[in-house]
Design brief:
about 240 residues; mainly alpha; about 0% strand
Length: about 240
């Protein structure tokens, strides 16, 4: 399932405009005064975030790396070494746990900073928007999470299905129905992903799933741009 890079550029442009809007606004408009009446900016983030989360949950127009946990996208290798696959997933999962701890620490620091009034609601929202922009850039250019996990490319990433939860989790500090529903659906996607890893590890290893091997990959992510250099640059300037 090839995702056009133009979609990523549109996403970067959209969130950049939102970022510019956010930093020019007064801090007071980001305060949540009621759980019944929600500001327009929160409703807008909820609509965009919910649509993205639903697309991820149901694998609608998503790249190979985000759909590999589904049976219909799994292409088994003719000879699967179960021991090798098990060891591969075990190694990946250990790194994933480290990433989870890192993200929990990040949220804890953010939460404490908010509690002690070092940062405010505006800072949290601007930070979330930056995460959205970086999420697009990581795919196109270079992903630090992929480097830490030791992935060959985004397609083989063990924590690809964590993206929605990581992007939306800062909303936990802005109590509201939209915030919590967005976090809830992101959590459902995260749990579904992790259950799939536990039950069907063969779908997450390139030793058993040929769909996520570089030889069969049709995605042009940043880490594969040397392989598809000419095509990658042609996509870059085709906006």
């Amino acid at each position: 399932m090839k995702i056009k890079k133009r979609n990523y550029y549109i996403g970067i442009a959209f969130w950049t405009l939102v970022f510019v809007w956010a930093i020019t606004q007064n801090e007071e408009i980001f305060k949540i005064g009621s759980c019944v009446s929600h500001p327009n900016w929160l409703i807008a983030i909820w609509i965009v975030g919910m649509w993205t989360a639903i697309k991820s949950l149901f694998c609608m127009d998503r790249p190979v790396g985000a759909t590999k946990h589904r049976k219909k996208y799994y292409i088994a290798y003719k000879s699967v070494d179960d021991v090798r696959v098990k060891n591969d997933i075990k190694k990946q999962s250990k790194k994933a746990i480290r990433m989870l701890v890192f993200w929990i620490v990040f949220l804890a620091v953010e939460g404490l900073s908010y509690y002690f009034h070092i940062i405010n609601e505006k800072t949290i929202i601007v930070g979330m928007i930056c995460l959205r922009i970086f999420d697009k850039l990581f795919v196109l250019v270079w992903c630090p999470f992929g480097a830490i996990m030791g992935n060959k490319c985004c397609t083989t990433c063990r924590i690809y299905g964590w993206d929605q939860l990581m992007l939306n989790s800062p909303l936990v500090f802005i109590p509201s129905v939209p915030s919590y529903t967005l976090i809830l659906i992101s959590m459902i996607y995260f749990i579904d992903w992790e259950i799939s890893v536990k039950r069907y590890p063969e779908r997450f290893s390139q030793h058993s799933n040929t769909a996520i091997r570089c030889s069969n990959c049709c995605e042009i992510c940043g880490r594969c741009r040397n392989k598809y250099k000419e095509l990658w640059f042609s996509q870059l300037f085709s906006i």
